[in-house]
Amino acid sequence: xxxxxxxxxxxxxxxxxxxxxPAGGLDASxxxxxxxxxxxxxxxxxxxxxxxxxxVAFPQYPEHxxxxxxxxPAGGxxxxxxxxxxxxxxxxxxxxxxxxxxxGAGGTIGTELAAKAPSDGCTIVVVSGSHTINPSLYxxxxxxxxxxxxxxxxxxxxxxxxxVHPSLPARNVKELVSIAKxxxxxxxxxxxxxxxxxxxxxxxxxxxxxxxIVHVPYKGNAQAMTDLMAGQESLSFxxxxxxxxxxxxKRLRALGVTGAxxxxxxxxxxxxxxxxxxxxxxxxxxxxxxxAGTPAAIVAKLQSEIHVALRASDIVDKLSAQGLEPAPxxxxxxxxxxxxxxxxxxxxxxxxxxxxx
Length: 357
Description:
Elements: H1 4-9, E1 15-16, H2 31-37, E2 40-41, H3 44-54, E3 66-70, H4 77-93, E4 97-101, H5 108-115, E5 123-128, H6 130-137, E6 149-159, E7 161-164, H7 173-182, E8 188-191, H8 197-209, E9 214-217, H9 221-229, E10 235-236, H10 240-248, E11 253-257, E12 283-291, H11 296-311, H12 313-321, E13 325-326, H13 331-352
Parallel strand pairs: 3-4, 3-5, 8-9, 8-10
Antiparallel strand pairs: 1-2, 5-12, 6-12, 6-13, 7-10, 7-11
Helix pairs in contact: 4-11, 6-13
């Protein structure tokens, strides 16, 4: 113990603060990190506080391989975005992020796996707009889309792309609508599954244009695009990453984007609204969730690394080429967005009477 006289003179020499967690475990730009950078402390009270803080173990995340569940098969938009982002995150952190494609049932199979995974930061899931649509489509899901997850961040937003097989003579939306009206029930449209955003985008188009086109659901966008290119279907509303490689290779023809405005990276493709169907608007998004109960420190670290990846110039360029824009936000903002989307789609789907058995 210090005597009163000794305490009055303390410290006579600089005090070395030993930090017990690894370098990089605490953000140096934070208030704590800034204070800990200066290891010379000349106030006894401050020294005691910092030593207490330093004794808390902060995770060097990721210490173990992280399973990244993608809720659709390889080759679709969700998969393409997930691989692009987490390759960059892995390069920065030196960690291992393993993509695990679990497609089927409109994304609910992979989502359920993530909901039931341990909340230790070793499992996360990349979801799309289907996440907030499915609870209103399926009579029973074995998870709660809001309560069973810890939102991490939105990744990107962007429109879908209305594409047709080259054999279809339509060069714009007006011509497509005219052909569909002259051939009721004959044009087939492919989607990555019942209740997915491309399915609902097509149903919105169908209702607004007053046409009878027939839905052919698949288990993912990759197979849907394969059959569309083979001429088994006439059209589809896939996401940009799924559509644009085939459009550029002239295997498919793009008639319009589904957003309210032209996509930044696809300025030559008009919106469906300006190309013949005024008022039409449907967009896509992708985001990252962790199982509920995942430690806040891990969520914050993961969010920070993803945001850095989304700001990288090469990632921005690659996303733009697919008609997508980075949309990083906070966990709180993403949580509010999910709740709002759940309410919105519940009203839309109830009004339309769409159900999936």
